[in-house]
Amino acid sequence: MRGFIELGIVLLGSLYFESVVDEEFGGANASLAGRLRYPEIDGAILMEPTNLKLASQHRGTSVWNLLVTGLPGRTFSGETTFNPAKSLAAMLSSLDDFFNAHPRLNQYPWEVDRLQAGPADQPMGTRVPAQAESVFWVETGADDNPDVGEEINAWLSRQFPDVEYKLTAMIPPLLGSGISPDHPLAQDVAHSARDLGVNGDMVTAPFACDGAMFNRFSKTPLVLLGPEGGNAHGADEYVIVDSLMTLTKILMRTACSWCGMAD
To answer: Domain range spanning residue 116?
Structure first.
């Protein structure tokens, strides 16, 4: 906004800026609230870290908790124990086979985000734990249904019929979404990018986000475009400052083209 003011640019249309607090959960609170409050906005650019690649689509995802129950204790007197940590490790390894063989999911990553067994406050384990659990993340395509729990359950129950486990969705599935690369908004952003020497070809962003709140649940079409950087969600996450300047110029050019400028 400061750039428009300093350059004396007056837009014919309205320009909105939004900052939300729940994007990591698919935008079901703040992002959705924005769509309900401003239902007639006719175009949006979401500044996810796309490394200055223009994305007309983004992936979906689902997040799962796999809890395995065992028989805890020690076999000092010949008792029967069942180690859920070993079973959990085997089940996660088996899920590699499931996803690699899946005709739809084998082109997308799945990641184990958390593993836990036994009390975390004890430095030395003294018995077979009662439970072991893992949280894992499954990515899907822009048009896929990310709710793959039934398929995973069917696989695990066949492979591990004697293991007591429970698979639970951590959050509702985050839907992928997109618009056509030929959509007027996509073409406007691409033209602005090319004017600044940035590749204007549209890609699918390789992550899930709150974009579906725009494309699927409102009248507002969405393009994703963000700065260059790396190590997202890591302790050393960073952005390249020069790319922020390039991004700002693309955004300003697009706003001028999309909204129109007063004489």
So the answer is: 60-169
Number of structural domains (the chain) is: 2
Angle value at C-alpha 232, between 52 and 186, nearest 5 degrees? 30
Give Cβ neighbours of residue 166 (< 8 Å, ≥ 6 apart): 66, 67, 69
Residue 85's pLDDT is what?
93
For residue range 161-216, what is the model confidence (pLDDT) as tens digits? 999 999 999 988 999 999 999 999 999 999 999 999 999 999 999 999 999 999 99
Rounded to the nearest 10°, the torsion over CA 90, 95, 96, 101 is: 140
The answer to whether residues 28 and 90 belong to one domain is no
Residues 42, 146, 106, CA angle at the centre, nearest 5°?
Answer: 115
d(Cα 218, Cα 220) in Å, to the nearest integer?
A: 5
Give the residue carrying structure tokens 């239902």.
Answer: 39
Return the CATH number at 188: 3.40.630.10
User: What's the sign of the alpha-carbon dihedral 221, 197, 246, 235?
Assistant: positive
